[in-house]
Amino acid sequence: MKMDEIAARGLVLLGGGKMGSAMLAGWLASGLPASAVRVIDPAPSDELRAMGVALDGDLPTAPAVLVIAVKPQMMQEALPAVSSFGGGGTLVISVAAGTPLALYGQVFGSKTPIVRAMPNTPAAIGQGITAMIGNGQCSLADLDRAEALLKAVGRVVRLEREDQMDAVTGVSGSGPAYVFHMIEALTAAGIAQGLSEEVAAELAQVTVAGAGALALASEKTVSQLRIDVTSPGGTTQAGLGVLMDEADGLPLLMRRTVAAAADRSRELSHG
User: Fold this and answer.
1) Is 91 strand, coil or helix?
2) Given CA atoms 17, 132, 101, 254 in this order, what sign does their dihedral have?
3) What's the rounded Cα separation, in Å, for the pair 12 and 78?
4) Is residue 106 a contact partner of residue 74, using CB atoms and an 8 Å limit?
């Protein structure tokens, strides 16, 4: 979708925090004119003000797209301001965590096309990944529009069922924190082997970032990449022998980690 397709009718962004501002920056960079955007935010940041978009004030009658980017705890207070956009003329996209499609259906009505999406924090630098699912009112064109907007902050995957969002939460939603902790642990392990904290931290951070970039850039599977750097009887094999132990290695720990996060997501989403 070209940004000029929605420029005529406009886009309303409910919530101009870190995620909302990151998406907005991506849209503007993709060619959406600032004049086509209206942001609703009670306390806009200096960064948001500097983007040149209209803040608060009168809203368009039927914008092409409404993007909801407020925190879940603010939802009840924020949604009434945009409930008039229901009825089918406006595509509603939500990036608010833990808020199901059914809730939006109650607010905007059964005829409104609604997309629920979950980006993750690397979206702030355009390196995120977002999972999305549309309700029964979404056409293929609606899903394509939503994906085009969400790609402003990284990659996008489409889900088959809404209940898969809990697994997404456990993998990519919470996943950056797991990786940050891995960097912490790898740094601490380097210090224990005699490195300075500064050197160990840089080695750990750049190694994790570089391995991730290589995994994305390579046509090989991550399993093959692992095999390629593992010489029989060498140092990497010695380390992996601990990490891949079936009884208490990383695979079992990661399954438990993702399951715990997904279970908590189900508790929060379903009351």
Assistant:
1) strand
2) negative
3) 13
4) no
Q: Tokens in use for 33?
A: 């004119």
Reduce the DSSP state of residue 146 to 3 states and report it. helix
Residue 230 per-residue DSSP state: -
Average pLDDT over residues 68-87: 90
Q: What is the Cα–Cα distance from 80 to 195, expressed in whole angstroms?
A: 56
pLDDT digits (tens, 9 = 90+) for 95-118: 988 889 999 999 999 999 999 999
Chain centroid offset of residue 91 CA: 19
Could you read off the pLDDT of 202-239 as tens digits, one per residue? 999 999 999 999 999 999 999 999 999 999 999 999 99
Q: What is the pTM of this model?
A: 0.89
Residue 143's φ and ψ, nearest 5 degrees, are: -65, -40
Mean residue pLDDT across the chain: 93
Is the separation of the CB atoms in 23 and 151 below 8 Å?
Answer: no
CB atoms within 10 A of CB 43: 7
Residue with tokens 């209209």: 54
Helix (H, G, I), strand (E, B) or coil at 115: strand
Torsion angle, alpha carbons of 81, 103, 139, 151, to 10? 70
